Amino acid sequence: MKKISEGRTAEVFAQDQEKILKLYRDGFPMEAVKYEYEVNRIVAFLEIPAPRAYDLIDFDHKKGIVFERIEGSTLLRMGVQFPNELNSLTKEFAELHYRIHKYELDVERIGGSSVLNQKEVLARNVQNASQLSNEVKHKIIEYLKNLPDGNRLCHGDFHPENVMIGERNWVIDWMTGMIGNPAGDVARTLLLFRFGTLPDEAPSSVKDALELMRDKINGVYLEQYLSYSGLQFSDIDEWMLPIAAARLSEWIPDEEKALLLNLIEERLK
């Protein structure tokens, strides 16, 4: 099979003209693979534009999901290729995120599926952040408990490399899908714009372009999302502390972790 892309958690191979195999790296938990498959089933039920998940398989001693093959380029790479269209692409990105957040999740209506709760996921990830003391973890989790609950569909990792532009705009990589408050989901996106890094395998031209485009994308996205949703910036900003702390538990470079720790320290003052 021909490898067509890869990230920190998985490699993607072409199976044929209609299907691809997302093969997870060694050590990636089977529960997370099954969860992504299940969330994709729910997303398909809701008719959100996402690749259909066909099957869970074992291949070369690794776990994988067979997905519908879609054609196109990620929004970030489209922005690199067509810089004059960056504003309009970012507006489409914000509108797509808002459309996702309009879905209220009725678990019984979608077959009793166990979609994770945003606050529970964040609290668990904060607890797993080895860089934080137990005292700081406790303080952040208690703060998180007092934030507003929500029952909307959230992607959990919505950024321009997870949106594909083709015959339509597709949203991919639903392994972090959850039920929660859209403001927290938007805070995650803003945090990724500010500090997020691309995998080592990403082309250097794309990495360089991201550094140049960060602030512009961030500003346009935030302005558009606030306009669509009616939220205030403060509604989103209050989620930044637990979102940053939870991010520390992920497979990210030490440089990004250092930036997150500085942000957390500032927020706790």
TrEMBL record:
Domain Aminoglycoside phosphotransferase, chain residue ranges per copy: 2-198
Name of the protein: Aminoglycoside phosphotransferase domain-containing protein
Species of provenance: Brevibacillus antibioticus
